[in-house]
Structures are given as C-alpha cells and as structure tokens.
Amino acid sequence: MEIDHKAFLDSLGGAEGVKRLDDEARADALESHMMSELNSAIAAKKSGEAQPPKKYPTVAEVEAQIETRPYRAGVGFLMVPRTGGNVKRLAPMPANPTLADFFKLRFADTANHVLQSANLAKKNGMSEEIVLACLLHDVVQEIMRTDHGWWGAQLFEPYVSEKVTFAIRYHQALRYYADPSVGYEYPDLYRELFGADYVPPPYIEATYQMVRKHKWYMEPRMVAVNDLYAFDPNVVVTIEPFLDIIGRHFKQPKEGLGNDGSPVAHMWRTISRPDQPL
User: Could you tell me which CATH number the domain at 99-272 has?
Assistant: First the structure.
C-alpha cells in the first residue's frame, strides 16, 4: 500500500511535530496511519466506491499561489523555515568550521534528506564519489532553491573532484526526465510542486540533451536515482558513517570553510551567519 507521506506528516503536525516524537512514537504513528488508510481502502472497496484519482494542480494554479505568500518560493530553508513560524537562534560555528560542522549546525532542514539519499546510494553499491554527490546534492537549498544544482556545484567545486561537481550540477536537470534503463520515473512530487502540465524550460531541456550524451551521464543520473522524494520519519542517518568518504574525497581547508579565500568562501559565510542584515 502506498503511503501519502504529506498526509501522514500533516497528521503529526508537520516536520516539527515529527521531530518531537521518539522512534517508538513515530513507528506507532506510522502503523496507525497505515491501518487507517488500509481500513478506508477496504471499506471503499466493499462499498463499490471508486477511488478518485489524485488531483494535481495546473501550472496556472501553482502560479496563482505566488501572491499568497510573504516570501518567494526560491528562498533557502535556512532563511525561511519550511515549517513556518519564527526562526530560532543558531548555535555559533567553530572558528575553523568543517563540512561535518555545517551538517550538524547549519544544514538542519536538508541534512536528513541528503543523509538518507547517501545511505541509499551506499546500500546500492554506488562509488564513493556518487555517495558523496548524494550527500552534498541538496544542502545548498539552505540558502537558495532555484537552480540549486548549479548553486550546489559552485558551492563545492573548490573542494571535490570534477566528477562529483558534474553529478551535483546536472542532477537537477535529469530529474525531469525518466530513464527506464535504470528504473527512474518522473516523481509525483513534481506534479504537486510545478503542476501536472508543467514543461521544463528550454535551458533544462538543452542541459538534459547535453548531459545525456556525456561520458559522465550516469553520475548525475545515479544521484537522481538515489534521491528520495518523500521524508521518511522512521529513518535517522547521522553524518558519522560518511566521515571516511568525506576525508578521502573532500578537500577540507585548514582555515575552515568560509575562511580560506576561495571564490565561494562568501557562500559558506552566508550559511554560517544568515542573520547578518548586510
């Protein structure tokens, strides 16, 4: 039986509600939700009631929502929390922050997702570079969601291999295109986010065509395959199992991220100090 993850999260008070539950309570809540869904499905089947197909918004309906929000959808989660409400005071960063420090102190919204993605890639026998790309592919959404593949590649380019950068940059475009050869289908989540009749813009189509012919096509494709399009409240992955991979494939500057004078140091400082007004 498929689970409507959004409905399940909403029933628990959203992601914040889930965080307040221990593992046992989460498991109980999921089991209860699944039983309720199963009972409803059985009752509908017995009554001969047809199950209505899931309705996704149109592009026009998605666009109509723009002026209903006090912020733009492309802003990062560190700046405007996904759960709404006021932001919380952030813990100070160490003087010479490492990538692991950012995961623990600044990537609160995206960490669970990318850790689950990297964990899945590891279980699926992906190379260490693909596992690292999965671990890093979405964390830039803490500051910018629009074109996050390109933003993410830029954020990490001085510190990882060209292949990892390629995988991060182009996973964004490949997500819109199915590839039956590796079992990748267009996510239902995108029908909700962009509209059922959404067509990617020309630059995404051109990027896809270019990457499809590239010798490294499978790198970003495997990031998309091992991506997760629903939050699983019963899986908790920490950064510790990936520290060895980070040590082998991430060039940590001794001065600390944001202090090394690289072309992207300002991006790391922005993540470190998001409450700075200027």
Answer: 1.10.3210
